[in-house]
Design brief:
The protein has about 110 residues and is of the alpha+beta class. It is built from three helices and four strands. The chain has a four-stranded mixed beta sheet with strand order 1-2-3-4, with helices on one face. The two termini are about 15 Å apart. One of its GO terms (molecular function) is cysteine-type peptidase activity.
Amino acid sequence: MCNRFNFIAASRINTTFITKNPTSVMNELVDRFMVAGDNTTPSLYFLPFNSGNGGHWVLVAMDLSRLMVYYLDSLPGNWSKYLSMKKTVDAAILKFRSKKNYRNRKD
């Protein structure tokens, strides 16, 4: 079961990197997905993300088997506060999907 979970270091994907070079961040995410993701084993990726708003942290959970992303935030509001992260993660999921020729499936 623990081979289903993968953690991405917050130092590798953060607001500063996304602002400076979102394409590089997207490609790094896709590379991470491609290493562990295959069409038979679901992979869950967890990325602690510092929003840059006074040190507030959000957990981004990415379920590659369902091509779903969840933003887990202890503060009320919506994901639009993290639009640059959402755009980058969404682009990475789409690129991963096209590289793996994934179909949205239910387990």
